[in-house]
Amino acid sequence: MDFHQLYYTSCRTGLSGYAGYQFNAVTPGVSPEVMHEVEAVSSYEPPGTLGHSPTPEQIEGCPVNLCFVPGPEPIVANVAFTGTDYSGRFGNYFAHALVPASGGMWRGPLPIELWKAPLWTREAVADTDLPRLPGPLPTGPLRRDAVDRFLDGTPRRRLLPALLAAVERAALDEERSVVILAADDDEVACWIAAVSFLLPPPMVAKVSFATYQFRPSYSRHHVIGTVPGAEIVADERAFAGFFLFDFTTGEASEVAAGPLPELLAGTGTVAAEPLWRRARALAAGGELRLADWHPIIAAAALLDGGPGIGPDDLDAACAWLGSNARRLDRDTVGRVGAAALGHDAASPDHMTGLADAAAAAGLDELLALAEGRLVTGHLAQASDRGAPAPHAVRLRSARAREQARRGYAQRLAGADAATLVRLLALADAHGVQPDPHTLRTCGSEVVGPRLLRLSDQDDLHAAVRRWPDLRAGTLFHLDQAASADRARVHAVFDAGLDKAVPKAELAALPALHEAALVARGRRDGEPPVDTALAVLSARGPDGRLDEALLTALWPGGWTPDDALALLPGLPDGAAADPVLVPWVKPLLASPRSMDDPVRQKNYGALCKLVDGLPLAGLLPPALHDRVEAVAWIHLAEKPLLATDSRKNAKERYEAGKALVEAYNTPAGAPAAAPAEDYLLLRLSVLLPNLRHDALARLLAGAHDKVVDTYLERLRRTLGGERATAVPAAGAAFATAWTAETELGALPVARSIHEVLLRALPEWRKRDLGGVEREVRRRTGRMTAVQDFQRWREKHCRRRRWLPGRQSQ
Description:
Blueprint: E1 3-11, E2 20-26, H1 32-41, H2 56-60, E3 65-69, E4 75-84, E5 90-100, H3 144-153, H4 160-172, E6 178-181, H5 185-198, H6 201-204, E7 209-210, E8 223-226, H7 236-241, E9 243-246, E10 251-252, H8 259-267, H9 269-282, H10 290-303, H11 311-324, H12 330-342, H13 348-361, H14 364-383, H15 398-412, H16 417-430, H17 436-453, H18 458-466, H19 468-482, H20 486-494, H21 503-507, H22 510-523, H23 528-538, H24 547-553, H25 560-566, H26 572-575, H27 581-589, H28 597-611, H29 621-636, H30 649-664, H31 676-686, H32 692-700, H33 704-718, H34 722-741, H35 746-759, H36 765-779, H37 782-795
Parallel strand pairs: 6-8, 6-9, 7-8
Antiparallel strand pairs: 1-2, 1-5, 3-4, 3-7, 4-5, 9-10
Helix pairs in contact: 3-5, 4-5, 4-8, 8-10, 9-10, 10-11, 10-12, 11-12, 11-13, 12-13, 13-14, 14-15, 14-16, 15-16, 17-19, 18-19, 19-20, 20-22, 22-23, 25-28, 28-29, 30-31, 31-33, 32-34, 33-35, 34-35, 34-36, 36-37
């Protein structure tokens, strides 16, 4: 490859036709654009320490600027300070530049290898036409071995990884320029040479550099060298504005180096040359950044025995090999894989990539070895509760699968629950079926007991769901435990075990099937009665309820509603079971709320239900009698509960009369005698449902307690909401009026009037008017209405008119 040459300096004659700074001589054919670029990069200012009257030795010792500008027509220029020009003016310099004659990429030696090469000149010539310079170009003293000696001898080598990373960012990301501040230009050139020899050759071809610039802030190069005495101060601003590496002090801008710069810096420039040659042969072609090249360099290093390769490098190489094995030749995959497998830093973490590569390349022996190492490491990791769970994939080697089966059988024996879960998760990932007998043993000896102690174990549930043999052992243990501790087995299924077991398997184990039914009923919010009947149905025609089931469904005992819902649905045999007696006895003893009519009615309904069941014969005699009495009352009161009081008035009266007489003379109605308290409660609720005249007749002949109960309820009603109190007051006055005027029952009438006198005198006018209308509607007698009007005039306080207020 030939090169065009260009000389630029301050001279008497040149291409411009007049004296001064100009191109002294140029190879014909150089474009004006190249000449303009050379002129731009060739400017030079000597260090400030030089002074105005330097000696020839000082001039000779001024730093040389060897610079490289990549591009369609790359330029390498050597700029040297020459002191004075043809006219004696101080400050002249001479630039000798080379440009490939055919254009395109630079194909000579690396530009930095031309440092102090013998081809450079500092002398102007008379002829303005320069010949082409034929290649290959002679290089200078900066060979790889020389650079390695330099690196080995400097304490600043520790900064090399960061320097490599900074150059990448400057060249590829167009970030801050890298500034190298060194003692002299030779040291600068050595650092640039180290960068050029170590970085990927395609990247190096894009890196522009200058070995010396007086004003780095004016430079466009990616890498800029400078020396003390130039215009730069290594302060905080400079470290932030550049990637500044001050090799005079050892300080540098903070740059994250990354794994490949660390690896390359430790490799050295001599070893890097064949390493990059191998790496470029392995590359896919699209690699750009150091991170892209890292796994390839690591793989290339493995082919050379793996010097300097650490665990992270091995990670990258193995993962890369697994992903690229299909495009690489089989021999290369085998050699890299074998080297990785035998490397001192190799661990199970590296085996996944190697196994993938071996499988892709059809290397059965490598696959078996890699997966064997993988199995050994994974089993150890899964058995260590302090280690993270291993990341595993399905095994492809028959030899490795057999090794895994043996390993699982050994480690599962005696494993605790947590280790068992980890081992089985690993077996699932490996695609290996552990020994069925071992799994059944683990289920019965580890999982079952563990669930009985701590039922909420989602990881164990998942294992039970996944492994049928483990599930069989677990269910066997729970089924054995169910006979002695049904409640604890229920807790296991409450925690969700039923969702891990197929229904068909539970159906074969009655106790566990029932526990699952109970758990599902609780979880789904199903009424306990429905669950109880479902369990009873599963127990078959001769099935019975038992204390454990009842306690599981009703831990707080039954309510009347529960008993009313459950007992009618029981088959005859179950309904006569003594186990029900302790559950129903508290409900039959008395109503839960003596004042609540709804509860009273439900209590009556429950007694009526029990009275018709064989269960009634199992109750204590006194309670049986009470139930029978309440059942009679419940049946007898039905006519009084009709909503339309005008119909069946005679039947309603007879029903009320029977109930009142049953309380008045319990000996005459022995069926009601054991439930006098309940009868009295019901009469207080039922009597107000009668017509006023029928009520008056009954009260006239009723026991004092019956009358008192009626009056107490009347007092509470009159003290309540007016919507209820007004009709009740009208009915009460009509009853008292009938008792007094038609029946002559003065004590009853006086008792009712006393209750009315305590409430009505303070009522508002409109409420009292409502009472009057109610008296008229109920009696249909004008005399009764007039009597109420007189009563009202006598007992109810009149309200006076007040200014600004209406009469109430």
